[in-house]
Amino acid sequence: NMMNKAINHVVLATVDSLTKFKNKLAYYLAIFAMVFGSTFGTMNAAYAVDVADDATITGSTTDVSGGAIVFKAATDAGSDGYAATMNAATPFSVASITDEDGAASIITIDNGVVTVTGNVTGIADSSADTAMALTITADGGLKIMGSTVEANDKSLDFNLTGDTGVLEFGGSGTQAIAGVIDGVGDAKGILKLSGTGAKNFAGVVGGG
Question: Kindly report the CA angle at 171 between 168 and 174, in degrees rounded to 5?
Fold first, then answer.
């Protein structure tokens, strides 16, 4: 009997220790999950990439792949508007494209497809009426998964200059599409709609 009581005490003590260990383990795992989740979320946040005037951007340009591309007045040489090229000989994706410059800008996409997983936005840094022109060449392509946004008097112009250049809206959610979409000449360019999301056009398609 004494032996049985001793054994019972040992078993109860062991069960109690295991229960406390499991509770502490769950507590520490919860803390780890919060810290890891916060850190991982920060690591995956899109980093802003300020692009120089007259630059040629490729998928191997530092921080461009997956980055939030920004054109701004501070890096506009001469303050006369941007002229930049996105060369996608090796296709690449960016999180967003934003033009914050006060002057008109011309961004050329050629030699392959650039995918924008978020929005394309034009924001004038003043009340001046300016445009961000995205020119897609015959061998270029621009696939937008988010919306296109015009703000503070900056308009968006999507210009297709060749027969086979493609502008694609491929989001799975509703896409609000601002801006003018036009072929530079008769039968120039391809407008492609894909994905399951509704496409709501606010601007002119097929004319400026």
Answer: 120
CA 142 to CA 207: how far, in whole Å?
19
pLDDT tens per residue, range 23-61: 555 655 554 444 444 444 434 456 777 888 888 999 888
Q: pLDDT tens digit string along 90-133?
A: 999 999 999 887 778 899 999 999 999 999 999 877 667 688 99
Round to whole Å and give the CA distance between 87 and 77: 21
Measure the CA–CA gap between 170 and 145, rounded to whole angstroms. 5
State which H helix or E strand residue 107 sits in.
strand 105-110
Phi and psi at residue 186, to the nearest 5°: -65, 140
What Cα–Cα distance (Å) separates residue 148 from each residue in 89, 117, 119? Answer: 24, 12, 6
pTM value > 0.70: yes
Q: Give the Cα separation of 69 and 94 in Å (integer).
A: 7
- How far is Cα of residue 87 from the mean position of the Cα atoms in its chain? 17
Express each pLDDT in 87-99 by its tens digit.
Answer: 999 999 999 999 8
Look at residues 112, 150, 146, 116 and name the one whose alpha carbon lies nearest to residue 133. 150
Residue 151 token pair: 């703000």
